[in-house]
Structure to design on (161 residues):
């Protein structure tokens, strides 16, 4: 297998769908936040692995928002796109919306930024392909991702003091 030297954000983009059923409810009768987080992490991991062509593990999840509740009977849609890469890490942004299947109405419900690390066969961090920025939106997402990653690494350094 040949590893690509670089890949575009659209080359690894992924969308996951799941119908929300009674088994996904919290005590209020809406969809449980933990289930949404699991789907967000799954979508992010698939995008990261598609980019890296490697097994990837989650190293950070931040900025997860719960803007609106998701209701039972709605289709939960997680759209994951690689925004920034370091040497061995891949940042993925995931946007979630709920779709009402009868009316077709969609509501933005959650957003998150997640970082994954690509691992080699020995379980050690390994290099990932560069990110080829094609659109203005890709370049804006990269700049924001670079800032966020800098802040994460500053927080990590402070926590280790
Ligand atoms: C992933 C793991 C092997 C990395 O080990 P490590 O000693 O932290 O490795 P490094 O310090 O070399 O960091 C690896 C990459 O992660 C980045 N990183 C480390 N800590 C980070 C943090 N808190 N936030 C964002 N990125 C971070 C580093 O910048 C580096 O990326 P770069 O090469 O692109 O600069 C180790 O942290 C681990 O096993 N974590 C548990 C993963 C897990 O179980 N996840 C849940 C299940 S998937």
């Amino acid at each position: 297998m040949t590893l690509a030297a670089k890949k575009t954000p659209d080359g690894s983009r992924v969308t996951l769908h799941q119908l929300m059923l009674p088994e996904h409810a919290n005590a209020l009768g809406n969809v449980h936040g933990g289930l949404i987080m699991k789907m967000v992490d799954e979508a992010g991991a698939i995008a990261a692995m598609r980019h890296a062509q490697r097994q990837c593990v989650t190293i950070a999840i931040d900025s997860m928002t719960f803007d609106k509740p998701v209701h039972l009977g709605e289709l939960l849609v997680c759209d994951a796109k690689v925004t920034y890469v370091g040497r061995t890490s891949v940042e993925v942004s995931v946007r979630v919306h709920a779709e009402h299947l009868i009316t077709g109405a969609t509501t933005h419900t959650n957003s998150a930024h997640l970082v994954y690390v690509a691992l080699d066969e020995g379980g050690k961090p390994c290099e990932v392909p560069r990110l080829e920025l094609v659109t203005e939106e890709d370049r804006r997402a990269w700049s924001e991702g670079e800032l966020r990653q800098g802040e994460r690494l500053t927080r990590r350094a402070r926590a280790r003091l």
Summary: Residues 57-60, 86-89, 115, 117, 125, 152-153, 156 surround coenzyme A (CB under 6 Å). Residues 80 and 94 are 4 Å apart (CA to CA). The beta strands are 6-7, 14-19, 55-66, 75-85, 89-99, 106-119, 130-131. DSSP finds two helices and seven strands in the chain.
